[in-house]
Protein 1
Amino acid sequence: MSYVLQTHRLSKRYGNKLAVENINMNIRQGDIYGFLGQNGAGKTTTLRMIMGLIRPTAGEIDWFGSSSTAGRNETMARIGGIIEYPGFYLNLSAADNLEVHRRLMGMGNKESIDEVLASVGLLGARNQRVKEYSLGMKQRLGIARSLLHHPEFLVLDEPTNGLDPAGIKEVRQLFLDLARQRGITFLISSHLLGEIEQLATRVGIVHGGRLLEEVDYEVLQRKSRRYLEIRVGDDKRAAYILEQRLGVSDYLVAAPGVLRLYEMLDEPSKVNRTLTGEGIAVEEIKRAGDSLEDYFLKLTGGDPLV
Ligand SMILES: Nc1ncnc2c1ncn2[C@@H]1O[C@H](COP(=O)(O)OP(=O)(O)OP(=O)(O)O)[C@@H](O)[C@H]1O
Ligand SMILES: [Mg+2]
């Protein structure tokens, strides 16, 4: 397993308040890691420590495998990010803004500017002043700037904050493209479950400064799936009938006489009719299980995410 980033008991104290407490995060190469938590959970504080903007009170950060002995500059050259708001010279064009940044940081060549603008879909607007950019365009320009030095890992703090649904969709697609086409690993924070749902391959849930759970997205989905719970006399025959008559395959026998059917959630009466029509005694049929949202609610002790 090749890790891009691991934190060990990472903590930050402000006065007598622990903003971040013993966070152990494991981000693998190729992950789109969704760092999910409500306002004040500790997302920005964690990302700022990771980016070296503030010093942890305790704990360690390992980059690119714990055996790495690379120095800080070498590591920073492989990562990029936007924490909080990206600032631009509003009276300069997008391309000029990137050129200023490129020279300031002493990196890349002039051609890389159009290359990164193209990769975020802003090549056509390269000469437009940033003043005239929409929020979504500015957000994409910020991402373009963070790509200038060809990082392998991008850290983005709530990158879709303030965007409208179309802008959110655009930026999400951009992340997916960058992940697929360039193999960039992402750490993206958000307080929106729906957003993480559509993007992340791995999810870390932070609450009250602690990482409550870190899990691959598929595992999370399975944990939180809804199903029809069907209580019958003969589970084997019932399962056979469901397969034959309704063509279902996604089910399991949870206990003797108890089937969990992960399909046909909207058609319990059809399931019931089919089974009783074949002489199966259906004692009970009901929807059960958690939605992803219920699952998070339980995890965070009932506090809604948003
Ligand atoms: N510089 C600071 N001084 C004192 N307390 C701070 C400081 N920065 C953050 N905190 C506190 O630490 C906790 C975590 O804040 P943080 O900004 O990391 O949360 P967040 O998850 O990014 O929230 P949001 O969704 O609102 O951006 C909060 O209680 C906050 O008040
Ligand atoms: Mg924040």
Protein 2
Amino acid sequence: MSTTSSHPSVISMINQDHSKFKSLWKEYNGPNMNGEMKQKLAWALIREIAMHSSAEEEVMYPEVRKRLGDEAADHLLGMEGHQKLKDLLYEVNNMTIEKNGEAAFTAKLDEAMKVLMHHIDDEEGKFWPRFEALPGVDADLLSHLGSKFESAKAHAVTRPHPWAPNKPPLNVVANMATAPLDGLADMWRFAGNPPQV
Ligand SMILES: [Fe+2]
């Protein structure tokens, strides 16, 4: 009997993050948002997506690789998934509304969000149902992975790093080395208070 069985399933945690991304993006495009508010929201969104992706790569995708195979894991990590998303978010992260103008900034972020929405549909519509239906995948395993996912987010990078390794064990080492630097870089962005979104 697992001691972590009371922890929420990794899949419900991942999907909860997805809902958060969707609502932040809706808020970004909503009424009464000025440039400064959009910039802050975009930074929060980039931070949340970076942490989520890093934890998925550490905890969930190795399980996908082990149980659903290389093709599934490589698809989720590749140019229809995380790699493309990181490339685009890296570009967004190097832009600001003040420097590049709101239209150009939003267009680039929109490009990234389209990739993210496609990736979310892939995970929720295709890969998670397949994963959950596998023999050996039960509530205990999903709960155990949920607890690992939560810990992984706590030491995750908070910015996109398209050139960093995305598979264990090197991604874990790279995250450990990079996350504190991201934290320092975030200090000025969030005035020492990373957003709780
Ligand atoms: Fe993902």
